[in-house]
Amino acid sequence: MRTRTSGRTVGGLRSLSLQAPAVTLLLIWMLIPLGMTLWFSFQRYNLLMPGMEQFAGLENYRYLLSDPALWRAMGNTLVLVGSVLAISVIGGTLLAVLYQQDFFGRGVARVLAISPFFIMPTVSALVWQNMMMHPVNGVLAWFLGLFGLPAIDWFSSFPLLSIIIIVAWQWLPFALLILLTAMQSLDEDQVEAARMDGAGPVAVFFFITLPHLKRAISVVIMIQMIFLLTIFAEIYVTTSGGPGLATTNLAYLIYIRALLEFDVGGASAGGVIAIILANIVAIFLIRMVAKNLED
Amino acid sequence: MATLQIKQVVKRFDDTEVLKGIDLEVNDREFVVFVGPSGCGKSTLLRIIAGLESATTGDLLIDGERINEVGPADRGLAMVFQSYALYPHMTVEDNMGFSLRLAGVGKQARREKVLEAARILQLEPLLDRKPKALSGGQRQRVAIGRAIVRNPSIFLFDEPLSNLDAALRVQMRIELARLHEELDATMIYVTHDQIEAMTMADKIVVLQGGEVEQVGSPMELYHHPCNRFVAGFIGSPKMNFLPVTAQAVSTSGVRVALPGGGTSEVAVNGEGAQAGDALELGIRPEHLLLDDQGPLSGQIKVIERLGGQTSLYVEMDDGIITITADGDVTYRVNEQVNFGFEPSRAHLFDGQGLALASLQRHPLSGLVRQDSRERVENSRERPEGGA
């Protein structure tokens, strides 16, 4: 810390001049869109009435915050993010332990397990919609049929759960990938020392493996959180936010406002609220992760 | 308190035979050191004893009971790893108490045992630290403490000092010897460093290529190595080997022709050897004497002065010979020197590298360390004392 501060005072001007281009670019990159979003959010601005823009004060916010759709969308966002995180972290940890064991064809199995992550969100959503969850042609329907059970129309009966399954299917391999890499750096001596200390497989998992993976798990949570807050393609392709608002998350709500209702002002207000929400999450999360990474 | 017997233990990994039928006995309260070059199978043997590997064939017995099928935790052993293998997310206290915690021992009892071990190792001030905040030597002591807390019947050490710097290694060596006294436990120690073996062991087991070369007390191995490998491995600097020819074999020894023309009679049992046989003369650097009338000569190539002693590397026709001389010798590089040796200090090896047995046993070669003999006597008295 000391060297950094003294460096800043001694060679302050020089280092500032060297940093300036990068910092300026970054500021332009971030501040202009942010500023425009803020500006639009205070405007009455509808694409159906071009040239009629005027200052609206907090009107857009008042309208949005009193709209039950916003709270529904926020709830959906949190449920979606929370469930996918839980599934991918827990499932990823267990699978990482599994794929760390030595068995025949492990290399191929690992590649297959990780491959869903490389499939485009739109494609995987379509595959799930038309080949897995389709009530007539779907694999799941056929499987239930084997037991004489009626087919489930997933997207109308359990719309949010369906989205969660699709997104989790995509992101679990990412968690697996990171956690598997972390597993490989687990000191085999530690496991053996624990075995000599009397730890069975379960105790080894909870006392040795899991603490070792703590850091990797925080990284997975942080990265996934960033991407999961903005899930859009899967919803757009399958349910279009419906039925009703059942699968509308914040990103999709903003899309509806901006490009279906042409209400740029309202959508911008939604965007600002999304930024605030993301920051609230980020403050808690990054604190937690940073603390984890430190020790 | 335990004895260990190893009977015909063979270990195969796929097609390679790592251990080729090891037979060994470890007595109660003995400090046994497995020593050998890397890849000799010493660590594998230790891991088999620990239960971390299983023997392909053969039996392991602790106190006469077969333990091949007993899991590592239930053998009553504790192991100290080369990498220390401390649990990085636990404090020193939790590290040391981990086995007790798994065994369901209460918090209070656990703390007492940990404190007791910490007292022996002077770890009390460090109990709340994490391994990351400890120095190498401290980590090593915590690893030993973790073993002590388990109160094992046999301690296993897998090259515990090789990650420490030289000064700390000497210190820990003394500490381990002291610990052996204090705990009065059976210890098995693996190392590639023959100095560790010589200084700490009651009994050294020299391994090479998956086979036991020789078992004996340090002085026995030093004075009566049974073959060329053990002779070269034990002792530092290494023993010198000179090709010689047997001239005459008699009851008082074997007379050999030295390179350079002289002869010398070495007091060994010459049975099986004949005049004209090509033999090898083994002589330790510290037993070579600088002597202007000596039968051997060569040119000094390198001089290493250690203060108290000087190592001279002398080039002869058959290679470089090391001589350990007094610290104050005034020789210079490229000087020609003559030297000789006391025939009773020399060893002879036949064409297969096997030693011809000495006619006289060295007085120290039968010596078990004084203290361990006392321990055995103490243990005999103990039952009457009601302990």
Low-pLDDT stretches of chain A: 1-7
Give the terminus-to-terminus CA distance of chain B: 13 Å
Instruction: Please count the helical segments of chain B.
Output: 9
Query: Please, what is the CATH homologous superfamily of the largest domain in chain A?
Result: MetI-like
What Rg of chain A, in angstroms, do the CA atoms define? 24 Å
Poorly predicted runs of chain B: 370-387
How far apart are the termini of chain A? Answer: 18 Å
Short description:
The complex is a heterodimer of chains A (295) and B (387). With 295 residues, chain A is mainly alpha-helical.
Write the layout of secondary structure elements.
The complex is a heterodimer of chains A (about 300) and B (about 375).
Chain A: H1 2-10, H2 12-41, E1 43-44, E2 54-55, H3 59-65, H4 68-100, H5 106-114, H6 121-132, H7 139-146, H8 154-157, H9 159-184, H10 188-196, H11 201-228, H12 233-238, H13 250-260, H14 264-294
Antiparallel strand pairs in A: 1-2
Helix pairs in contact in A: 1-2, 2-14, 3-14, 4-9, 4-11, 9-11, 10-11, 11-14, 13-14
Chain B: E1 4-13, E2 16-26, E3 31-35, H1 42-50, E4 57-62, E5 65-66, E6 77-80, H2 92-102, H3 107-121, H4 136-149, E7 154-158, H5 166-183, E8 186-191, H6 194-200, E9 203-208, E10 211-216, H7 218-223, H8 228-233, E11 240-250, E12 253-257, E13 263-266, E14 278-283, E15 288-290, E16 296-305, E17 309-316, E18 319-326, E19 336-341, E20 347-349, H9 370-385
Parallel strand pairs in B: 3-8, 3-9, 6-7, 7-8
Antiparallel strand pairs in B: 1-2, 1-4, 4-5, 9-10, 11-12, 11-14, 12-13, 14-20, 15-19, 16-17, 16-19, 17-18
Helix pairs in contact in B: 2-3, 2-4, 3-4
